[in-house]
Design a protein that fits this description.
alpha+beta; two-stranded antiparallel ribbon; 97 residues
Length: 97
């Protein structure tokens, strides 16, 4: 079994009005247009011990939910959110149907 695990933040255009599928298409377009190599590790801060444990615990939780989803014939399980940062305040946006 091959599994994709994506944990990313992606800056969308200010005029973005799409749904979660459109978000994935924006990410794909960005990667294809820019032919991006993997992100250089020397640019990313190493997590602290506490951060590393939180990342591990979160991944373990999602992994177990994914395995449960597979048992019910779902091929995808995770969390997706769409938010806007305006004037230093985060607002959760609902997916447009």
């Amino acid at each position: 079994m091959k599994i994709a695990h994506i944990n990313i933040f992606f800056e969308l255009p200010d005029e973005f009005e799409g749904d979660y599928n459109d978000i994935l298409m924006e990410i794909i377009k960005y990667r294809k247009d820019n032919k991006l190599p993997p992100y250089p590790e020397e640019v990313v801060d190493k997590p602290t011990e506490t951060e590393a444990k939180a990342i591990y615990d979160s991944s373990k939780f999602l992994w177990n939910r994914f395995l449960n989803a597979l048992e019910h014939d779902y091929k995808i399980c995770g969390a997706v959110s769409l938010s806007e940062l305006k004037d230093g305040k985060w607002t959760h946006l609902k997916e447009k149907k």
